[in-house]
Amino acid sequence: MSRLKGKIAVITGANSGIGLASAKRFVAEGAHVYITGRRQEELDKAIQAVGAGVTAVQGDVSNLEDLDRLFAKVRSDHGRIDVLFANAGLGATEPLGKITESAYDLVFGVNVKGTIFTVQKGLPLMRDGGSIILTGSTTASMGTPAFSIYSASKAAIRNLARSWTLDLKGTGIRVNVLSPGATATPGLLNGLARTSKKSTRQYFGYFSDGNSDPRGKYVWLVMDAILASGAAVVRRVLASVAEKSK
Length: 246
Ligand SMILES: NC(=O)c1ccc[n+]([C@@H]2O[C@H](COP(=O)([O-])OP(=O)(O)OC[C@H]3O[C@@H](n4cnc5c(N)ncnc54)[C@H](OP(=O)(O)O)[C@@H]3O)[C@@H](O)[C@H]2O)c1
Known about the structure:
Low-confidence stretches: 198-212
Radius of gyration: 17 Å
Strand order of the largest sheet: 3-2-1-4-5-6
Helix content: 40-55%
Oligomer: single chain
CATH architecture: 3-Layer(aba) Sandwich
Bound molecules: NADP nicotinamide-adenine-dinucleotide phosphate
Order of helices and strands: EHEHEHEHEHEHHHH
Number of strands: 6
């Protein structure tokens, strides 16, 4: 398969979970992929796991100098980006009344500020036909106990995309949001391990055990977002839901 042959992709937060699964798929489809993350050791492991066709640039998406360094590297290597997947994100489980300033700063700093400046700083390298994908969450449009800060940050992502499609009108650059439900990634599993079993069930009653590997499903949605319009992605999701409910 070579649906991304010759494409240059940047995936933030790709030394683990959904980002890493996407990097593997992108490379298998012929793209050269830049992956990022804060932990160099995990990036080294990711390079081994993905193989040729990947470049790792260590950095924190909430740090603007790190973003400048990332995009300077892509510019000097290739001069362009075809796919910008702003995926890095994290959460904190703190109920109202116990929300700390540090958790707020961390979650909004990475999920909202990090996404805004990843896209803004990567945009000058994008051309007509380019695809920007943001990772939102199903919790952006629902209530989840003790998860309000994370949920609100993902609601912001959804709205950023709505406004950015208007800002980018006429450029040929598309913006889509991938909104995963609970997915068995190291990020979610480590978060759950920090909570008690009872509260885990309370917070994530809809959590599946990951046996069906939903990461694969999200990666295919990401591929759709790159290759087709948002409307086509919605049609495909609705078709798949209709198929499952038969
Ligand atoms: N898993 C789910 O159930 C689920 C559901 C809805 C949405 N999501 C979203 O999906 C995305 C990926 O999460 P995941 O589940 O795959 O979790 P994961 O396995 O923890 O992956 C998160 C990735 O983001 C990176 N990251 C975190 N903070 C960063 C920062 N400040 N700068 C750069 N990279 C950073 C992590 O690397 P470092 O730690 O090395 O920085 C890691 O590569 C996130 O946006 C998450 O909110 C996940």
